[in-house]
Amino acid sequence: MLVIKNLSKSFGSHTVLNDINIHFPKGDIYGIIGSNGAGKSTFFRCICGLNAYQGEIQTDSDETIRNSMAYLPTEPYFYPKITGKEYLEFFRKIADKSASKFSDELIDLFNLPLNNYIEKYSTGMKKKIAFLAILLLDRPIYVLDEPFNGLDLDAVILFKKIILKLKNKDTIILVSSHIINSLTDICQQIHYLNNGNFVNSYTSTDFKNIEKDISNTIDLTNINL
């Protein structure tokens, strides 16, 4: 269980998150949607312990918050002149694991040029290597910020299958995306972040209302085209 109580975050006089209270039980995939600037990435960085915040974040893990989570940012950072192989080995050492059959099979499936510098990778290849790395951490909570950005169709399908497989390990998975369909395919719940708080929550039975609810906030009455 991931429990968030009275979570607030401001940058100077600008409040991004305003007294959020929400909980995420194990064994499900939760979508987070919202417009650009709604605070999705800030919310993720706070719950991963990367940003200071007001409020409480609790898990039922014996580990610290940061060590309970595997975080995939929208734009992963890579050290200059590091190869894909070196990057994965770095994460293996963090996880204190040797190469496993599971991880090696995944690496083969992603078909990445591991001996090349990551700075030469395409956007989609960078997203793949970063995703592989956090899978090696084998954490109880996965936080994926726009994981489908920059991926081709095959990679999007592969990512979805892996995320669904992670769910079966009794994990908590939080996923943000601007593409609603990419979330409705895999999530059990979707939460809409707006004006610093979650204003609507949807279960799989009412996902059809998401686009309609957002559309109702857009007024084109005075727009001439």
Explain what this protein looks like in three dimensions:
The protein has 8 helices and 9 strands. The protein has 2 domains: 1-60 and 181-220, 3-Layer(aba) Sandwich (Rossmann fold); 75-144, no CATH class. The longest helix has 15 residues, at 123-137. By secondary structure, it is of the alpha/beta class. It is globular, with a radius of gyration of 18 Å. The protein has a 6-stranded mixed sheet with strand order 5-6-7-3-8-9. Strands 2-1-4 form a 3-stranded antiparallel sheet, with helices on one face.
Q: What features would you highlight for this structure?
A:
2 domains, Rossmann fold, globular, 34% helix, 225 residues, alpha/beta, six-stranded mixed sheet, three-stranded antiparallel sheet
Write the layout of secondary structure elements.
Layout: E1 2-11, E2 14-24, E3 28-33, H1 40-47, E4 54-59, H2 65-68, E5 69-72, H3 84-95, H4 101-110, H5 123-137, E6 141-145, H6 153-167, E7 172-176, H7 180-184, E8 189-194, E9 197-203, H8 208-215
Parallel strand pairs: 3-7, 3-8, 5-6, 6-7
Antiparallel strand pairs: 1-2, 1-4, 8-9
Helix pairs in contact: 3-5, 4-5
**Mean pLDDT over the full residue set:** 91
Amino-to-carboxy terminus distance: 49 Å
Series of secondary-structure elements, N-terminal to C-terminal: EEEHEHEHHHEHEHEEH
Structural class by helix and strand composition? alpha/beta
Number of helices: 8
The first-level CATH class name of the largest domain: Alpha Beta
